[in-house]
Amino acid sequence: MSQVTQTLPEKTRFTFTEDWTVVVLGISIIALALAGLPLPVPAYSWSNGQELFSKVLTSANLLTIVIQFVLVIAVAVLGAVLLNKPLKSLLVVFPVVYGITVLALIIAGNSQVKAWNLEAVIFSLTLGLLIGNIVTLPEWFRSALGAEMFVKIGLVLLGTSVVFSDILKAGALGLVQALVVVVSVWYFAYWLCKKLKIDDEMSLMISSAVSICGVSAAIATAGAIKGDTRKLSYVISLVLVTAIPMMVGMPYLANYLGLSQEVTGAWLGGSIDTTGAVVASGTLVGETALKISTIVKFSQNVLLGIAAFAISIYWTYTQKNTEEARSEKPTLAVIWERFPKFVLGFVGASLVFSFLLSPAAVSSVKDGLKNIQTLWFVLAFTSIGLETRFSDLINASNRKPLYAFLTAQTFNIIVTLLIAYLLFR
């Protein structure tokens, strides 16, 4: 009898899944912002030592950083409660992760670093890797790192910035190019990965990163298929590293080929994988190139939600990771059970901000939500770095994904140039 009494609470206790938890957390942040709660936006931009201390390390800005910390740790604690995870280790680990993340944001805020288009995620990942491989972190510390949950919260918030009305600004030609490039490059990249016998997880991440919008697409795909964070960090590194020579070299190549600013802008926007690099590269060419490149990149970014949804359906229907999954017929109920629910939060946020809110309402919360979204992504990559060993990133098995990524990116550059020339000449 006593045994039955002890086990009864376990059976009746309700626990959220992680996907539903991040939907609740993401929507709660959005709702608070729309209700008028001012989301803190710390300043991280600086050019020299004097500006670092007069803009970033001031008492007022440090207080803003502390307020932001209180907000995000409250969200993390709520997530742990909903998931029935221990709070003690989280309350020790999260401040460490946040401190490293703030350092990465400060480094990325330097004007010269911005000119090189090095994003905060690469610094948070690098700092995390260095600390995690120099210091022997206890297992309880590593197990408390919530990289996957942080990524998914950021993805739900990302939906607020993927506004479908931006397609209207992009125009018909930008949309046509985005559709043709995304479909053709994605298919080629995936076909190439399978030819090289690269596993499905890595193949999907590489294909999405090359064809859609780089970092965000890789993160969304990894979330949709519950992918290995070590593979995700490797793909993100490839995206960020290759974006730099493309950002600098493609404008000069366009000039050498005698391309117009319209064609050049469409080429840059359709082939460079990060929005920041697209803007920087377009600026090197001229005002018209900058405008067209931004329009085309907007079009590709909007397709992220559709792609994430399609990949989620594909993965939940075809995955065969366990004996149970292999023996279980993929009915609609099974697909729903496997389907990553955070995608619904992403799409829901995008639809609300696209069609239900006034431009004034969107504008009033845009900066705060964008800032907090970026923070969750950087927190995630700090966590990924802390839990990853260098040996997992640097080994012979990573050569094939590297070859696949570079080959697919070359294909992307050529195909996008041809389509841009046909549509924008």
Automatic annotation (TrEMBL):
InterPro entries: UPF0324_pro
Family per similarity comment: Belongs to the UPF0324 family.
PANTHER family: INNER MEMBRANE PROTEIN YEIH-RELATED (PTHR30106), UPF0324 MEMBRANE PROTEIN FN0533 (PTHR30106:SF1)
A GO CC term assigned to this protein in UniProt: plasma membrane
Record key words, sorted: Cell membrane, Membrane, Transmembrane, Transmembrane helix
Compartment(s) where it occurs, according to its Swiss-Prot or TrEMBL record: Cell membrane
TM region positions: 20-41, 62-83, 89-108, 120-137, 149-168, 175-192, 204-225, 232-254, 266-286, 298-317, 342-362, 402-424
Presence of keyword Disulfide bond: no
Signal peptide: none
Protein name, UniProt field: Sulfate exporter family transporter
The keyword Ribonucleoprotein is assigned to this record: no
Main location: membrane
Its membrane topology: Multi-pass membrane protein
